[in-house]
Amino acid sequence: MVHRSWQVIDEGYIKFHSQLHQTPPPSEWVVEEVNTWRDRMYALGYIGAYEGGIGYGNISVKSDLLNEFIVTGSGTGTIPLLFPDHFTRVSSYSIDENSVVCEGRIDASSESMTHAAVYACAPDARAVIHIHSRKHWDALLNRIPTTSKSAAYGTPEMAREIKRLFDETDFREIRVMAMAGHEEGILSYGTSLEDAGRRLLEVLEGEYP
Predict the structure, then answer these.
(1) 143 lies in some domain
(2) What's the pTM value of the predicted model, to 2 decimals?
């Protein structure tokens, strides 16, 4: 088994550490399930890439095993149609150390820690969808549960902000949040991928006071 490690570093601060074990990709039925909603989000422009080729947006589904989930891999926002090699299984993680161990052909996104924090706080969560939309982000910021502006993506602070939203806001009921420190970032979760996707679209379409 081959493995490698990589880090996301911004302004000298190590934001995220991933250790990848090269193994066969997740089963095709998982990929098919995720792609049902991933294709829809991509078509709407909520998952994709900015000019210059920087990808955004990702989706994960919880495994039956404790602390495991399968997530679209790093940088896959640039790819219109995903195949099994574009997914990775996060087999363990540490929020305090901001690190993950993953298995597959591709590294986990630095956003994996945000997904991990949701699964850690909500035992009923089985799927997480993270999208980007400037229009909806501007409209929903501080109207729905919103993380602190000081909490950047790919940091333990963002993961801790997720816990704060569960403890101090109605995030558990709304199931959609905005990321003030991650421009354009919006996240939903649900008891299934269908639940997470439908709830996200409801809020984006204005079904929130």
Answers:
(1) yes
(2) 0.90
For the chain, the domain total comes to: 1
d(CA 99, CA 93): 6
3-state secondary structure of 60: strand
The dihedral through the CA atoms of 157, 161, 164, 166 has a sign that is: negative
Beta bridge partners of 5: 19
Tell me the C-alpha to C-alpha distance, in Å, between residue 161 and each of 23, 33, 37, 138, 153. 32, 29, 26, 19, 11
**Calpha distance 71→161 (Å, rounded):** 21
Domain enclosing residue 199, as ranges: 23-89+108-204
With respect to residue 1, please indicate whether it lies within any of the assigned structural domains.
Answer: no
Under DSSP, is residue 138 helix (H, G, I), strand (E, B) or coil?
helix
What's the pLDDT at 208? Answer: 65
What tens digit of pLDDT does each residue of 113-136 get?
A: 899 999 999 999 999 999 999 999
Rounded Cα distance between 67 and 5, Å, is: 20
Q: Which of 145, 97, 67, 101 is nearest to 185 (CA)?
A: 145
Residue 80 has φ and ψ, to the nearest 5°, of -65, -45
- 69 inside domain: yes
- Domain membership flag for residue 94: no
Find the CATH number of the domain harbouring 116. 3.40.225.10
Assigned token pair, 206: 């204005």
Contact status, residue 164 vs residue 145, Cβ threshold 8 Å = no
